Amino acid sequence: xxxxxxxxxxxxxxxxxxxxxxxxxxxxxxxxxxxxxxxxxxxxxxxxxxxxxxxxxxxxxxxxxxxxxxxxxxxxxxxxxxxxxxxxxxxxxxxxxxxxxxxxxxxxxxxxxxxxxxxxxxxxxxxxxxxxxxxxxxxxxxxxxxxxxxx
Length: 151
Hints:
Number of strands: 2
Distance between the termini: 26 Å
CATH topology: Rossmann fold
Oligomer: single chain
Number of helices: 6
Largest sheet: 2 strands, parallel
Number of domains: 1
CATH superfamily: Alpha/Beta hydrolase fold, catalytic domain
C-alpha cells in the first residue's frame, strides 16, 4: 500500500482534524470501517477460514494508526518516481480494499526499467488465499515466472 486512493480518503478538513485529535487521543478507536474479509475474499468457504484467523484485528482502527497510514502513504506517494528497482505489481480490478489506479500510478511513475503490472480480471484483494484454487495457481504462476526470469 503506497497511497490511499482519493476514492476512499476522507475529504478536507477531516484528515487534518483527525491528525490533530490523534495527538491527544491516538488510541481512540473511532474510525469507521467495514469488515475487510467480505471485501477481499471471494470464495465463501475461505471467508470462514479468514474470519477465524486469531491474528486478525476485528476492532475499529485506532486514530493514531489511521493518521500514521495517511502520513506515510502521503510520503510514499510523493516519491513514487524514485522507485528504481525491479518490481512486479499484482492487482485485481474487482478490489474494494485498495484502488487498482494506485498500482497503475506506481507503475507509470516509477523510473525502474524492469517493472511489470498485472491486473487480474474479476479477482478480489486476497489473490493468494481468497480466490478460487485455479485463480490462486494463475497468480502463483505469474509470480514464479517473473522470479525465474530474473534468477
